[in-house]
Design brief:
Blueprint lengths: L4 E6 L3 H11 L6 E4 L8 H4 L4 H4 L46 H9 L7 H11 E3 L12 E5 L6 H11 L15 E4 L1 E2 L1 E2 L2 E2 L2 H9 L5 E4 L2 E9 L2 E9 L2 E13 L2 H11 L2 E2 L1 H6 L6 E2 L11 E9 L14 H12 L11 E5 L10 E6 L3 E3 L9 E6 L4 E8 L7 E3 L10 E3 L6 H18 L8 E6 L7 H11 L1 E2 L29 E3 L14 H16 L1
Parallel strand pairs: 1-2, 1-12, 2-9, 3-4, 12-25, 13-14
Antiparallel strand pairs: 4-6, 5-16, 7-8, 10-11, 11-12, 15-20, 15-23, 15-24, 16-17, 17-20, 18-19, 21-22
C-alpha cells in the first residue's frame, strides 16, 4: 500500500465517493479512500426494493441502536447506516429530493457564508443527470435520477384527493415549487439502484492516483504539532497509519465522523478524559446537535388488490415480479418505500412546509407483541390490500447527541436522537397525522380507501395520537448536524468545513449541516460534497 497520499478520505459513503472522484480527476493528486465495509457486490443492493432486506444486514450496516428515550416510549430503535461501498446510498430508499430553498438560506444566515440556495443550486445541478430536464435541473451529472419505472394507478387518485383538500400538485418534485403532492424520483438507472459508489467511485477506479482501502476500520486521526497528518487504521488485524500530505477529510457520516473525532481526542474534554482518551482540544460541539426526521406510519385498507401491491410480493407471485424486473426493468421490485410525497404547511406564518408525508400502496403485517400499538414487520405484506403513509416533521426542534460508549473504535457509540422532546415537535406531529387522515378521507378516494387500519378508530384524541407516535415511530434515516459548520465559536467547523484548531482536517458529510433540511437528505449530501471538492481544490 503506497503512500503518503495528498488526500486521505475516511468513509466511502455518498460524500466520500464524490470526493474520491472529484479530487482524483486531475490525474495528479493522489487520493486514498478508507472504507470500513467491502465492495457493493450484494445483489439486494442493486434491486431497488431490496432495501427492505438489507437495512439490518450484519455485514452491510453498522448495526447501530439508539438509546431508549421517553420520546420513543423507552424503546431502543434500529438505526441503520451503510457499511459498504456507497455507504447509506447503497441501502437507502433511493429518494432524490432537494430541500426547500429557505433551508440553505437559513444556513447562510447562521454565518455559513457561501451555503445559501443560490450558492448550492449549481452543485445540485452538477451532480444530477435527470433526463426529464426542467427549470434548475441538471442533466449531465454522474448521479442518474429517474421517475418511477412502475407507476401505481392509485397515484392519480391521491393527487386528486390533494387538490380536494386545497393543496397543489407539482409535476416535478425537485422543481421550482416544493409544496404539495408529487411523485418520487429515484437514484436509479433502468432496473438498478445507482448509489454514490456506482455514480462516482466505480467510474474513477481506473485512475492510478486513486486507491481504495476497504475492509479497514479507522481508529483515529493522527495529529502532529496541531496538524492532521494521517489516519490510523486496522485492516486484517494489522494497524498502520495512512499518511496525508495535504488534508485528511472525514466523510464517515453523522455518526461515524463525530465518533472518530472523539476517539482522536477532539470533543467534550470531560467525557473524553473519563474514558482515558488524551484530550487534544476541548470541543463540546462535536457530537452535539444531532437531528433526524421521526416517522409515524399509518396503514389504510384498500378496496381491492387492484390498488395495492401486497399480493404481488407474496407467495408464487413474487417470482413473476422478479422476472419483470430482470426482463424489462419494471414491477414492484423497482419500487422504493416512498412512491409519492406531500409537503404541506400545517400552521400559519411558516415559510416552508413543516410536514412531509410519504408512502406507497403496500401495507405491512403487524409484529407480535404486547402493548396497545404493535410494531410492523417491514418487508412482510399484509394478506389484505392496503397502503402505508409515513408522516414526519420537516424541521424538528429537538436535538440529540452522539457520544462515545468506549475508547474502543470497534464499539458502537451512544446515539440519543431525543425525538419529540419539545412541545412544538409534539404539536406538529399531531397536526401532520390529522392532515394525513384528512387527505386519505377526501372524496376522490371514496370507494378506494375503505378504512384506516392503523391506528384506526382507537386513536382519536391528541393524547391518543401522541401515544401512537411515541410507541410506533422510528427514524427516517436522516441523521445530521453532529459536527456542524457555523460562524459561532461553538461550531466545530468554519464555513470552509475546516475543523477549528486543527490544520489540514475537514469534515464533509451530513454531520456538517447546521440544521436538517425539509427533505430526504442524500441529494443535499451529494451537493455539499461537490461544493467541498471545490473548496479543497481551491
Amino acid at each position: 500500500m503506497q503512500g503518503p497520499f495528498d488526500y486521505v478520505i475516511v468513509g466511502g459513503g455518498s460524500a466520500g465517493c464524490v470526493l474520491a472522484a472529484r479530487l482524483s480527476e486531475d490525474g495528479r493528486s493522489t487520493v486514498a479512500l478508507i472504507e470500513a465495509g467491502g465492495r457493493d457486490r450484494h445483489p439486494y443492493i442493486h434491486i431497488p426494493a431490496g432495501y427492505a432486506r438489507i437495512l439490518g444486514h450484519p455485514r452491510l450496516t453498522w448495526g447501530y441502536r439508539t438509546e431508549p428515550d421517553a420520546g420513543t416510549a423507552s424503546r431502543a430503535l434500529d438505526y441503520p447506516r451503510g457499511r459498504v461501498w456507497g455507504g447509506s446510498s447503497s441501502i437507502n430508499g433511493l429518494g432524490h429530493v432537494r430541500g426547500h430553498p429557505s433551508d440553505y438560506d437559513l444556513w447562510a444566515q447562521k454565518g455559513c457564508t457561501g451555503w445559501g440556495w443560490d450558492d448550492l443550486l449549481p452543485y445540485f445541478q452538477r451532480h444530477e443527470a435527470y433526463a426529464g430536464g426542467g427549470a434548475g435541473r441538471g442533466t449531465t451529472g454522474p448521479q442518474t435520477v429517474e421517475p418511477l419505472a412502475d407507476r401505481p394507478p392509485l397515484l392519480d387518485h391521491l393527487a386528486e384527493a390533494v387538490r380536494a383538500i386545497g393543496l397543489p400538485v407539482q409535476p416535478d418534485m425537485n422543481g421550482p415549487v416544493r409544496e404539495g403532492f408529487s411523485e418520487f424520483q429515484q437514484t436509479r438507472r433502468g432496473r438498478r439502484r445507482i448509489s454514490a459508489a456506482r455514480a462516482y467511485l466505480h467510474p474513477a477506479l481506473r485512475r492510478p492516483n486513486l486507491t481504495v482501502i476497504d475492509e479497514a476500520l479507522a481508529l483515529r486521526v493522527v495529529v502532529t504539532e496541531g496538524r492532521a497528518t494521517g489516519v490510523a487504521i486496522r485492516r486484517g488485524g494489522v494497524e498502520q497509519v495512512i499518511e496525508a500530505r495535504r488534508e485528511v477529510v472525514l466523510s464517515a457520516g453523522a455518526i461515524g465522523s463525530p465518533q472518530l473525532l472523539m476517539l482522536s481526542g477532539l470533543g467534550p474534554a470531560a467525557a473524553l478524559a473519563d474514558l482515558g482518551i488524551p484530550v487534544l482540544r476541548d470541543m463540546p460541539g462535536i457530537g452535539a446537535n444531532l437531528q433526524d426526521h421521526y416517522i409515524i406510519r399509518l396503514s389504510y385498507r384498500l378496496a381491492s388488490h387492484r390498488w395495492s401491491a401486497n399480493r404481488r410480493i407474496a407467495g408464487w407471485r413474487l417470482p413473476i415480479e422478479a422476472m419483470r424486473w430482470a426482463l424489462d426493468g419494471t414491477g414492484v421490485l423497482t419500487w422504493s418505500p416512498g412512491m409519492f410525497s406531500l409537503f404541506a404547511r400545517t400552521a400559519p406564518g411558516l415559510e416552508a412546509p413543516d410536514i412531509q408525508i410519504n408512502g406507497g400502496p403496500l401495507s405491512w403485517a403487524e409484529a407480535p407483541g404486547e402493548g396497545r400499538w404493535p410494531g410492523l414487520r417491514i418487508g412482510t405484506p399484509e394478506a389484505e390490500p392496503g397502503m402505508t403513509v409515513g408522516v414526519w416533521q420537516c424541521r424538528p426542534e429537538s436535538r440529540g447527541s452522539v457520544s462515545l460508549a468506549s475508547p474502543d473504535p470497534a464499539m458502537a457509540p451512544r446515539i440519543a436522537p431525543r425525538y419529540l422532546a419539545t412541545e412544538g415537535d409534539r404539536a406538529c406531529v399531531i397536526r401532520g397525522l390529522r392532515l394525513a387522515r384528512r387527505w386519505l378521507s377526501a372524496p376522490p378516494l371514496a370507494g378506494i380507501v375503505t378504512a384506516e387500519s392503523r391506528p384506526g378508530a382507537a386513536a382519536e384524541s391528541d393524547a391518543d395520537l401522541l401515544d401512537f407516535a411515541r410507541a410506533t415511530g422510528g427514524t427516517v434515516y436522516h441523521p445530521c448536524g453532529t459536527v456542524r459548520m457555523g460562524a459561532d465559536p461553538e461550531a466545530p467547523l468554519d464555513a470552509a468545513l475546516r475543523l477549528r484548531g486543527v490544520a489540514g482536517l475537514r469534515v464533509v458529510d451530513a454531520s456538517v449541516f447546521p440544521d436538517i433540511p425539509v427533505c430526504n437528505i442524500n441529494a443535499t449530501v451529494l451537493s455539499v460534497a461537490e461544493k467541498a471538492a471545490d473548496l479543497i481544490r481551491a
